[in-house]
């Protein structure tokens, strides 16, 4: 099997579930198209240039971050729009989308609504789902091992537990091929999306910085309190996400078109004043529907009450930004639903026996020793 992974930190961590997939005898290739600390708003960036006919399965692993970052009133509608966009790219390809739902420690007994949204969306299309919450409960069954031992931190499973889930997933994806009878393609109304990088030639006065990591090499416009980035946008188009280097951003951004403004603040806990940290993310913001044919992006002005003095100088405001995710006007999109042998065939966890879970747990512990 050949598998493409679209996800976030769970999908790129060393000795995570992707390692388990690679250890599986059923898996030939796993290719990652991932950005840490991001959500499905990154899909227009990570899917660009991917040939879905090259893969048997496409794992979609965003639930953990969507539950953390998707707090806007329209978030669920926007997530569905982005999932519709992804399905439109592979509706007529051989690749089958799979929801990979990884658990977080504090939500083991009560997952948030985004978890239910993904279950509903994938079940509506008869797409397979690997429910990591259910898998973790099965992994824990009959064991005296305390819950924290299954996690490396509150948001990520421990090496051995994640590897065990990857091994189980590989087995179940191999079995799913026999349950798939057909694919029915149809058309729905929906939105396409694109990721638009800022052009330094259109913003000549702003310094350009190139950053490199194992995941990406990108150019960023480094703005301070006085700089404004301008970029063109079409009629009925909306900005829905910002690509930036979290390691070099310490202040909220504002995206403005006409009289409309949308805040874009992603925290400053990853900011590195030595200018060495590179953490490229694409994060959501409240969608901004363009009122003009251009949009401005700038740092939020410092509050007047924060007065600078020689005795207590204020730190410089900085952001390194790369581009934006744009939602295009509604159009006809291809979609699909799978025809399966029975109504439960899309559930990739329930058919796994307790004996098998004990076996993959032992295998994972041995591999991680």
UniProtKB/TrEMBL annotation:
- State the protein's name: SGNH hydrolase-like domain-containing protein, acetyltransferase AlgX
Taxonomic placement:
Bacteria, Pseudomonadati, Pseudomonadota, Alphaproteobacteria, Hyphomicrobiales
- Identify the species of origin: Xanthobacter agilis
